[in-house]
Amino acid sequence: SLGVDFFGINCWEGSPRFVPAARRAILLREIPANARIAITVNPTVEQALALRTEGFDIIQVHFNPDEAKTDPVALSKALQAQHLWLAPKIAPGKTFPEAFIPLADGLLQDAYQPNAFGGTGQRADWTAFTQTAQKHPSSPGWSTSLQQRSPDGHD
Fold it and tell me: What predicted TM-score, i.e. pTM, was given to this entire model?
């Protein structure tokens, strides 16, 4: 009834939009099953599993693949691909890491900012992202989204 497919709640304490666990519990009661997204940055496997235990259906993980702070392979094994969306921070001129494609059912690309993750208000360059998606048209998580929406940029 909200006109959205998913509803994301920011669970990363480093964000000004962070929602504390007590408030998340109240919000989750109002969001339909299979539409609850936990948005976080560099979680450990234990942190991601704790978010699933809270009632989130999907964990959206923002991370810098050039740093060793997050292990997307371990997250995928622990959560299973259908409960994981990966949002690697990709610098301009770099390609989307194709090794991430089988790890998650959702793949996102942030507007790159060297010292920030997501929600910056900057326009994203989808060129490399769409080129990778076109090479993998049957991959879950992005091919349908790109075909339906044909974005040329989004924050």
Answer: 0.84
